[in-house]
Here is the input.
Amino acid sequence: MKKLSENTTDLLQEIKTEAAELPQNKRRDFMLNGLKLTAGTALATAVGKVVAGQENLPPNVPTWQKSLGRGVVSVPYGQPSKHEANLIRRTVEWLTADKIASISMSPLHKMKGIITPSGLHFERYHGGVPEVNPDDHRIMINGMVERPLLLTMDELMSFPSESHIHFLECPANGGMEWRGAQMEALQFTHGMLSGSEWTGVKLSTILQEAGIKPGAKWVLAEGADAAGMTRSIPLDKALDDTLVVFAQNGEMLRPEQGYPVRLFTPGWEGNTSVKWLRRLEVGDMPWAQREETSKYTDLLADGKARKHSFVQEVNSVITSPCPENPIKRKGLLQLEGLAWSGHGKVKRVDVSLDGGVSWQTAKLKGLVLSKSLTRFGMEINWQGEPLLLQSRAVDETGYVQPTLSQLREVRGTNSIYHKNSIHTWQVQTDGAVNNVQLG
Ligand SMILES: Nc1nc2c(c(=O)[nH]1)N[C@H]1C(S)=C(S)[C@@H](COP(=O)(O)O)O[C@H]1N2
Ligand SMILES: [Mo]
Here is the structure.
C-alpha cells in the first residue's frame, strides 16, 4: 500500500513538472482539466500506455483523484459505498408465507470481527415492524409487585445503564437442515445470527424499583407489535443479566430491532428477547403463551415436546471459505469462522480438514466475550486437494458441539429449533465450496 501511494505521489510530482514545462496556454488548459491523462504527449509518456478498462490502475492516476470529492454532510447519515450494494440481508422466499411474519438473514460470509452493522442485523418478526412513537410509548410493570410502574422512555433511560457485546440468534437458525435440506449459502445456513453492543437498564434494577412480591417466579414480557408477542422468562434470568435495551451499536435501536425498547436475554433463544416491549408482568407461573407451546418447543421422536429450551448452546461455523467465498488460489490461506455459546465464553475451537477424522486447534482472534460471537482463524496451505471442512467449538462449561448424528439420536428429526451440530463444507479441487451433511 505504502509503495502504491509513494508511486502516486511521485507520479503527481512528475505530472506537475511536465506541466510546468508546457507552453503557457497549454499549461492552463492542462491544469484546469485537473490531471487529465490525455492532456499532452509529454504526459502520455510520463504515465505509459493507457490500456482500455485499466485507466484507473497504477501507474495511471484514477478518475476519482482528478477532481474534488463531495463535502461534509452531503450524506448526513453515512451509508456504505455503492460498491458494497451486494452486502445485504437476504430472505429465503419459500421459508414463510409472507414478508410480514418472516425472517431475513445476515451476510455472515462478508462480516468482519464480532459486531454486525445495525443495518445488517438479521430481522425476525411475526407481525411486521410497528412504527412506535417513543413519546407515546410506555413500559408497564404489573403483577406481583409492590408498586406497579408506568415508565416513559425518558424515565427508563434515566436509570443506570450498561453496555454489553452479545450475539442474538433465532433458535430456528439452521432448522431448515434438520431433515436434510441443503441451503447453498452460509447466509441461509447460519445467518439468523448477529452480534451487537446492546445498551440498556438491567431488568433487576427496574424490578427492584417496583418491588418483587414474595412467591414471584416468572416475568411475562409483552411486545407492542401486531403479533403482541409474549414470552415467560424465569425470574432467575430476569434478575441475572437480562437487559431492557434501548440502544444498539451506539445509537438508538433500529425499528427492526424493537425501537424504542426491547428485552434482551443474553445467550437465550432470540424469541425471548421481546421487541417493542410494552409490559412486564411478574407472576408465579409461566403463562403458556403461543410462542412457548405450539411454537419454540422441540418435538421429539416419541411425539412429546421439549419445552423451555432457552439457551442457545455452543455452535460454530467456518465463514471463509464457504459457498459464497470459494478458494481462489493455492497456497497459504487464512481459514476463518465464528463460534458462540449462550452458556458463556467460547473456550476452544477445533478445525478438521478431513470431515472430523483429525482435528487441529484454531486461534481465537480478538475479543473473547461471554455470550458473544467469537472469531477464530487458522492458516492452511492449500494445494488443490478436496477438503471436508468442519469446526467444533467447546465452551467454558465444557459443552462440546455435537455431530449431526449425535443431535439426531437425542432429538430425532422432527425438530426445527436449536440445531447446533457441527457443519461441513466440502471444498472441491477447483476451490468451489458445497454444503454437505456428514453424520
Ligand atoms: N414483539 C416481538 N418481539 C420479537 C419478535 C416478534 O415478532 N415480536 N420476534 C422474536 C424472534 S422469533 C426473534 S429470533 C428475535 C429477533 O430479533 P431481531 O429481529 O432483532 O433480530 O426477536 C424476537 N422478539
Ligand atoms: Mo426466532
